[in-house]
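Subject: two folds for Thursday's group meeting

Dear M.,

Sorry for the delay on this. The cluster queue was jammed most of the week, so I only got both jobs back this morning. I'm pasting them in the order they finished. Each block is the input sequence followed by the predicted structure tokens. Could you check whether the formatting survives your parser before we put anything on slides? The first protein is the one we discussed after the seminar.
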Amino acid sequence: MSIDIEHILLEILQLPKYKEQISLQISENGEGAEGKLLELNHKEKDFNKFAFDLPYTNSVMANLGMYRSRLMKMSSKTCYSYHRDPTKRIHIPLITNDKCFFVIDDEVSYYPADGSHYLVDTTKKHTFVNASREDRIHIVGCTNEVV
């Protein structure tokens, strides 16, 4: 499946301003899932209702079987803590460069913004590093797919 990155970038221009992430899928009662779910009485699968009218972007997420999807911006010269997630994630890189990379079980991977989506086994210990001078933007969503 080839994804039209430019189409998504045009659609997300209508989103409200956000600092690091914004939920693209919410729960039935309208709650977002931008951070940890420990404070909410929901599971990741509960976040499956589209939060915004983004016809193309929503169709891509639906076709890929994504839930709890978020638009995630990572500032330049930052990284995440080394951690594990409860489910695997699909990443759709929108804006990135070769100085942005994952480290998963001590293996380094780079995912270009070339219209591809990537199934990432984030149940393994991992981190992400933006060692560039530009922001990196991905759509990230949970999936039940097998790596």
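Second protein, same layout:
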Amino acid sequence: MRALVQRVRRAEVFVESAGEPESVGCIEQGLLVYLGVSPTDTVGDAEKLAGKLAHLRIFEDEHDKLNLSVLDVGGGLLVVSNFTLLADARKGRRPAFDGAARPETAEPLYQAFVAALREYGCTVACGRFGARMTIRSDGAGPVNLIVEMPPAD
């Protein structure tokens, strides 16, 4: 399971509905999380990753040190499914997506990740799994991280 995490001042996700963009998820200060699921990922991986992100200290304290988590600052998480995070672009010009789980495997793990974040007390908004989405974000920092579970060696 791979997450691209961006600290944001605001983020919103839209899907097309009757030809018009419809907002399906929005947060103010917090984390925009693009989540990719691999075929070998488990519910345990989803739960561990949720715990990692809920407590990841990437917000400044009163001394401008990255010492606070999204929970500490009362922020939210906007979680967007993104199979392209598991793409392999090492060969050729067209990425291979064999490293991404099929939707019937990925969606329950995506939902387990979101549920685990909520169990930690996080405020969570979501994109729509499998939909084409437009994401608007106002990055803060910039602070961007790739977090994997299980961790890459």
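Two things I noticed about the second structure. Residues 26 and 123 are 11 Å apart (CA to CA). The two ends are 14 Å apart (CA to CA).

Cheers,
T.
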